[in-house]
Amino acid sequence: MNTFALVRAVYGAVLLCAPGAVLQRVTGRRADRRSRVTVRVLGVRHMTQAAATAANPGPEALRIGGCVDAMHSASMLGLAMCDRSRRRAGLVDAAVAATFSGVGLLLARRPSRRARSSRSG
Fold this sequence. Notes:
mainly alpha
């Protein structure tokens, strides 16, 4: 498993296993049931995306994942604008999703190791 997929899988596992602790750390408040369920769903999404990226780490999968992350980031910005009580959580999640998007899109632009080694040999 590549480092990018591993980081995403660990992040997803933390969201899945400890959503209340994550939300309390981010917001400073105790999380309600709805928020904990939502964070668990996001954890599953990240773990699924990590598995997909690990299984097929090529540029196409990374580009698709980067676009999914960008859309997720935009939706969290919308949440932050519309729901004052979830603003901080939305902004933090938007930043994390934007980071995953940027890294994924940058990795998609890099030539694969196989392509680099065939050019140098």
